[in-house]
Amino acid sequence: MDISVTLFGGLRHYLPAGSSFNKCMIDVDEGSSLAALLQKIPVPSDKPYMVILNDEKVASDHFDEITIQGDDEVVLLPPIKGG
Known about the structure:
This protein is mainly beta. Helices cover 7% and strands 28% of the residues. It has a single domain (2-77), classed as Beta-grasp domain (Ubiquitin-like (UB roll)), CATH 3.10.20.30. The protein is built from one helix and five strands; from the N terminus they run E-E-H-E-E-E. The N and C termini lie far apart (41 Å).
């Protein structure tokens, strides 16, 4: 099943080849967890980011508990800096 994934800011550099600008579709098995999906995106472990699933922020300690559905939209956001 394909899941829509959007990466913003510098995280776009970690999209799979063939992605369009900041979006891609990632294939996962039916019943996969959010953690399994995120493992398919090669963001280094030292790069912080926030995960939004269907317009709701998800805490990292819940990634293993959430089962991905075919119509889900996942967004990865880097920390916002300003001054």
